[in-house]
Amino acid sequence: MARSHKETTISIRKLIVFHHSSDKSVWNIAKLVNLSHSTVQYVIKRFKEENRIENKVRKCRPANLTERDQRFIIRKFVKNPRLSGLKVSAEFNEKFSTPISPETVQRVLRAAGLNGLSSRRKFFVRAENRKLMLAFAKSMLNKPKMY
Fold first, then answer.
1. Nearest-angstrom CA–CA distance, 122 and 95
2. What is the 8-class DSSP label of residue 141?
3. Which of 61, 100, 136, 140 could be stapled to 104 by a disulfide with Cβ–Cβ 3.0 to 4.6 Å?
4. Shortest CA distance to 109 belongs to which of 147, 64, 58, 70?
């Protein structure tokens, strides 16, 4: 499991470097900026070795869908939860220029907290039986309750 960490802001890093240049100790700087001393040490070390405060450029694949596209997909399922990912992806491909797969649709829905639901199976009731059940219920209306 990967560690989750909160990234320090650029302004805090600049503040750390400023205090370091004014000859304050790592522990004092850590207390001032309310961070651990190891974080402060890391920022100072990176500034000395690489002479940078900013993050490196991240190299990852750009997102296939914009927020607007994701909202479109979510809205479709909120309106009609019985739709399949295949139908929504086909409709999306017709309306928008970026083609997506049904797996992408499922991923967007899972991220939004809309996990797959299947409707409850109901047994078939013939018309004759429905009439008989209604007649029985009407006949029981006037009977006293037996507790």
1. 36
2. T
3. 100
4. 70
